Amino acid sequence: xxxxxxxLLLAFVVQVTAQEKAIPIFKDGEAQIVAAFNDDxxxxxxxxxxxxxxxxxxxxxxxxMHVDVTxxxxxxxxxxxxxxxxxxxxxxxxxxxxTPGLFWDxxxxxGAKEKQRTRVEVERRGKRPIISNSQIKTxxxxxxxxxxxxxxxxxLSDGSPTVGGDNESLAPKAVIDWxxxxxKGYTSREGxxxxxxxxxxxxxxxxxxxxxxxxxxxxxxxxxKGLEAIIPVAPNTSYYHYYRSNGLVRSPGGYxxxxxxxxxxxxxxxxxxxxxxxxxxxxxxxxxNGMDRASGDYNDFWAGRDYLNDMEPMxxxxxxxxxxxxxxxxxxxxxxIYKRAKEMGIPSQIFYHQNGHGGPxxxxxxxxxxxxxxxxxxxxxxxxxxxxxxxENDQRDAPTAYADYPNPEAKPVTLHLEAGAPKAGKxxxxxxxxxxxxxxxxxxxxxxxLAQAEYTNHRLLYLSPILKEDIHISGLTSITIKAASSKPxxxxxxxxxxxxxxxxxxxxxxxxxxxxxxxxxxNHKSLTKSKPLKPGKFYEMTFDLQPDDQIIEKGQxxxxxxxxxxxxxxxxxxxxTELTVDLNGTSIIIPIVGGKEAFIKAxx
Length: 604
Known about the structure:
Elements: H1 2-20, E1 26-27, E2 30-31, E3 44-51, E4 64-71, H2 74-77, E5 82-89, H3 136-139, E6 145-150, H4 167-179, E7 185-186, E8 194-195, E9 200-209, H5 211-220, E10 227-233, H6 239-243, E11 244-245, E12 248-249, H7 260-267, H8 272-291, H9 300-303, E13 317-323, H10 332-343, E14 348-353, H11 363-375, E15 387-389, E16 400-402, E17 410-418, E18 424-428, E19 436-440, H12 447-452, E20 460-463, E21 471-475, E22 478-485, E23 491-499, E24 513-520, E25 539-544, E26 548-552, E27 557-563, E28 578-582, E29 587-593, H13 595-603
Parallel strand pairs: 5-6, 5-9, 9-10, 10-13, 13-14, 14-15, 18-20
Antiparallel strand pairs: 1-2, 3-4, 3-7, 4-6, 7-8, 11-12, 15-16, 17-18, 17-29, 19-28, 20-27, 21-26, 22-25, 22-28, 22-29, 23-24, 23-27
Helix pairs in contact: 4-5, 7-8
C-alpha cells in the first residue's frame, strides 16, 4: 500500500514539474508572449562562426560566417527546443559615410566614359557577442530563438561582399545547415572547438528589410532544407532592376549616381587584411567588368544577380511586403517574385502599403505565418486572402483583403493620345488624331515641376477628362511608344500622374504620382544588346511601369507625362536633345477595376 502511494506521489511530482516547464502558447493561431520567456535578463546570448563551402577572400581556408544567438534560458535548463527566426545583413558592423565623390558623377552624355569616383573604407564597429538586437524583443518572448549573421566580407564574417553573388546565398544556407547538423560551427573565427545547435528544432524563418530582406530570398533559392518560411520586406530581387530600367542606367531614388560597386564599398566592413584582395578580385574586376555603365544592357553578370533566375529549388512559404511608393527598391521587385512563386505552387501572400521604402506586414500576419510554418500550428493561414493592400486613407495595420494581386477584376484599358503640346493634350479610349509632338530635354526641370507646368516644351502631357467617379487602378501599366531622337542616345522617362497637383504640408504620398518608368530607346529590340539610334528615325518600344494599386478620386485627371532626363534618377546629359513622339504609334494600357466600362462611366 505504501509503495503504491509512493508511486502515485512520485507521478504527481513529475506531472507538476512537467506542467511548470515553459512551452510556447498559441491562441487564435498566433504565438503568445510567455512570461517565462519574457525576462531578458535570463536570455542566453552567445556567438559562433559557421563554416561555409567557399573561400571568397582568397586566404586558403573556407570562409566562416559570424553568427549570434539569443534564446530563452529554458533551452538550456529544460531541454526545450525551439524554431529560429533568422536575420542576416551586411550592415550590422557599420557602413561607409557619405564621402564626397563616392557616387558616380552623372552629368555627362549617355554612354560617355566617366571619371573614376572616390573609394572609401568602412570603419568596423560592434561588440561581441551581440551582432544585432533586431527581432529579439518581438520573437523570443513568443517562443522562438533569434539569430543574426553578418554577410560575407562584413563585420567579423570572412569572405568578400559580392552584392548578389552566389556566396550571399550560400552563406545563410550554411547557417541553416548548421542548425540542422549538416555544417560545422566553431566557438572562434579560426579555432577548432566545435559547437552544435542542440536547442534548435531545425525549422527556420527568415525576415528583414531592404538588403536584409534580399538575403532571405537568396537563402530560399538554394532550396536549403529547414528554411520553412520567409518574410522579405522591400527586398532587392534583381540588381539589374535596382540599377537599370529597360536598358537605361537609372539610380535608385535618393541615391543619384549609385551603382553596384558603390554599394560594395558602402558595406565592405570585413577584416582589414583581406580588403585589398577583395577589392582587386571583386570590385575592380568582377563588378567593374560586368556592370557596364556605358550601355546599361542586361548581361550574364546581371543575370547572375537576379533571384528570379534561381527560384527553381525554392520551397519556403513566401509572405512578401512592399510599398507602392518605394522609389528606392521599387515595387516590381516583390511582385515579380510573388508572381513566380504562385506559378510554382509555393504558398504565397503579398502585403502592399501606400508608403515608401520599408514597412513590414502587420504583426498579426507575420505571427500567423511563422506560427504555422515554424511551430506547425494549424491556423489556416495558407487559405487566407492572397493579397493585402492598405488603402489610401487607412492605417498600415488595417489592410484590405483581396483575392489576389493584381485585383482579378482589373482589365486592361488602352488609352490613346491627342496632340496639345506645349500645353496638355488628351488621353482617351478613342483613337483621336494622328500627328507628332516634340519635347526638348533639360534636366534642370524636375519631373514634379514639369507635371505642374501649364506650358513647357520640356515634356509632353496628355490628360483624361475630369473623373466623375473614382477609378481603381490595379496591376502593371504598360506603354508602347514610337519616338525619334535628335541624337544617338536619349533618356526616356514616363510618369502617370493625378492632376491637379496637390501641394502643401498635408498632402499624402499617393496624391500626385501614380506610377512611373524609364527606358533606353536603344534597347527597343533587346535588353541584351543596345544599338545607337539614327537621329530622326522612329523606333517603337513597349515596357511596363511600376506595379500599383491605387484609387484615383473623382475630380482628378489621369495624366500621362513623357519627358527625357529625370534629374533624380537618370544620367544628366547637356540639355537640348529633342525627342519626337509619333502619337499614332503611341498608347498606354492601364489596368482598371471594371475595365473599359468603368473608365467610360467615370469620364463621360
